[in-house]
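--- STAGE predict ---
source: upstream dedup step, 1 unique chain passed
mode: sequence only
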Amino acid sequence: MFTEIATNPKYEKLLISTGNILNVLDNAIPLRKSHEELLDSLKLCSECASGRVDDQIEFRESDGQVLRANAELKQKITENARNEISIGVKLFMNKNSKECVKDAANALMSILNVDYVDNVVLAYHPNQYHTKISPGTPDVTAATLQHQSELKWSQSANDSDLNDLKELWFCLEDFALQKQINQLGIADLDTEALQLLCQSARVQPVIAQINLAACCIVPPTLKEFCTQRDIQLLTHSDPEVLLTDENFILPNYTVDWSLRYQVHVRCRGVLTAKGYLLGARKCLASDKVKE
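--- STAGE serialize ---
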């Protein structure tokens, strides 16, 4: 299936859903990093498509959607009433495209078959697009973050990058104002960038994620600002770019965005479903990144 997709000019855009990956991936690797988990999930989709794994996979030719175990995913989500579960999402943008934000949010609602999600955290790093993450490199995330610890988001970005971030946030705000996202969050901004985002935001962030591998101590100014604005400070261990073009399973495609969703049962805090969605498009020769 994937070979046919890659060689067919009809499929300029592609959407892949890994389905619920709990109890499917190798549980012998409990500390699998997020980018490794996504790569393993995509490999599972590829093996299902080739018939090497007995698992349901659906290819919707009309819109280039590859869905693994979609029925099982929806069944898992509807095991409990909607008000009894919490759906948390982290959206990783590989480019500053408002269209891609809308594609990601709409795909999320459609594939999960829900009217709203509880929170979406946006991760956007304009100067990290070309970071190569090799699945065979030990502790690559830590190594990447060690390098990143020397930078601040606002110092490595320019005015155009900040405006791009605000445009992406504006798109997510539209979904929040339509009650399709209950809470919005942002990842890895330093105090200056977070302040500038809040100044122009119609919907204020209620979550700010920071990576303690890149920032061993929470900056006092950031902590003070979040306290004043009632923004919850959370930690994470994700790389800035979850999946680069070099590590995507299909050649000649560029990754637009990827997201991770997690479904918890509120009263018990039990994780009942987890998976990834990914949007990509065929990369024309004129569009390929010049390194």
